Amino acid sequence: MIRVRNLTHRYGDTVAVDDVSLTVDDGEFLLVVGANGSGKSTLVRHFNGLLDPDSGEVSVDGTRVQDDFVAARVAVGMVFQDPRDQLVSATVGADVAFGPENLGLSRTEIDRRVDAALSAVNLEEKENDRVTDLSGGERERVAIAGALAMEPTHLVLDEPFTGLDEPARRSVLDRLRSLHADGTSVVVVTHDLRDVLSLADRVVAMADGRIVVVDDDADSTSARESLSNLDVRLPTEPRPPADDPC
Amino acid sequence: MLSYAPDESLAHRLDPRTKLLVQFAFVAAAFAHETPQGLLALSAVAAVLLASAGLSPLSALREFRYLLPFLLAGPLVSALTLGPPWVVVADAREPALASYRALLVLFVTAAYVRSTPVRDTRAAIQRTVPGKLGQFLGMGISLVFRFFPLLLADLRRTREAMAARLGDERPVTERIQRTAIAGLNRAFGRADRLSLALRARCFAWNPTLPALRFGRLDWLGFAVAAVLALWSVL
Amino acid sequence: MATSTDGVELVGDETAKNIARAALFAALMGAFGFVSFPNPVSPAPVTLQVLGVFLAGIMLGPVWGAASMVLYLAAGAAGVPVFAGGGAGFGSLLADPTLGYLWSYPVAAALIGAVVHRGVSLRDYRAASTPLLVGAMVAGTVVIYAFGMAGLMLTLGYGIAEAFAVGAAAFLPAEALKIAAAVGIVRSDAVAAA
Q: pTM for this structure?
């Protein structure tokens, strides 16, 4: 369980996250939505201690993140925008092994985790492929596998659909659905709600560093109404032009 | 471009540490025996090493064609004298031997590069160099290998975009500046995203080391390295 | 959570960032070697590799600038084709006639960084005066060509005059161009990284 209490984060004079409190339960599928600059990416980067709070505190499974970074980063796996810059090795299997190697696990255990993580994202066949030969959707799934190999209880994805075409987007969504079904808590940060709204248990909307809407039934009419006031892309709107793939 | 190519050759089946030993011993021997006889013997060794990696001398030579001007200039420049008789062939002897020695070492290196994936060399370094330095070099090599093609593509795109808008008409300093600035911004942007991802995945000083295992074939490699090393001190 | 996390020695945040930058800069160095421009004063085309050495010292400072050049050499030795002309392998560092230039890069980057930042700790390189920047890069160029010539003398048995003729004279004018370009890059605000 991730518990955020009265968290504030500033970049210079700008308050990116303003006194936010939030709990993410084990096993839940949470959407964090909001326009660019609303503070949603900054918020989730506190979940595993990638940023230091200016005030307030974040704990994972009862331990303050700053007291045990390794435990927090194992429990909360994180995937960022543009997997191209997150993959650290030239081949798929070696990249997925990176996290478990850092934990100092035995080679047998690492191999077991790599196999399990790749099968969870349907990429068993690609273990020896070079990451440069993969499609955008496959690269995104390798990045997810890299996080899964740490065996996290929570998987956080920051704008995972940027730059993906429709089939790739569906393949990623499909994997997230099955991970959630197997008991992993999934947190998706996005400004684009197409397809993903129906998967979520709960939705949190941010604006100007604060949580402005919390709805326990993400796909309800009331949620849609409150979200339509924010600058986010709702499922009924036409598809946006493809993002710059670079 | 000289690079690893998968194969089942003898050299491909050796442990990278064995091949590094052979390489270093060869260099030592080549510097110790810069004589026609010595280099002749080493030519035979180099030919065997090339063959063991499935490379022909001609294709190896092609990989180093950019160095040929340097290798040829030495003997030529040395043979020339100001004043009669203008050309003294005997003066070219030493530089010619040195050029040939350099070429032999490059052949042996070509055999290594062709038969050894970068991750194996990385593993060899990480298992040989202790502590943080080993991890820094190992991770660094892996990251350079991963990001070099991306940055090369970034630079190519920048140049194409500039050429498409007639940027080639501008002064050369300005073009160098624009290309370098684009490359720097790409590199720094990628580095910042990468460092976030490294931290999220528990980037550590003491990871599980990559697996490497000496096999029976490696004894053959050790023997070759030992003979070369011995010969270089005799 | 089944995983024991006690023995894991995390790389510090600042160091992780510096390693990522050093590695990406090393990769950029390799890519710079593939970008050539016509040389206005000589038939030998200009690649941007030496510009990479200058910028490593200036932007990353003496320690990480040199570290980045060490990674460049290590990656090339390990088989990433980042050396001039797509070369690679330990032989390039041990017996290649151009080995002197390669070995000079970490030294030159450290020297340029130490002059521009006036010591080991980093300052804002944009605040450095133009004479200081130019002086640092001239010193770096001297190091690069001194090492380069020494390498030619060592591997090919050249005399010093031959080494200068073959290994420096044709290339030096283009270095002035790169120094000018580097000053322009530092002075422009177009590079986002501090």
A: 0.89
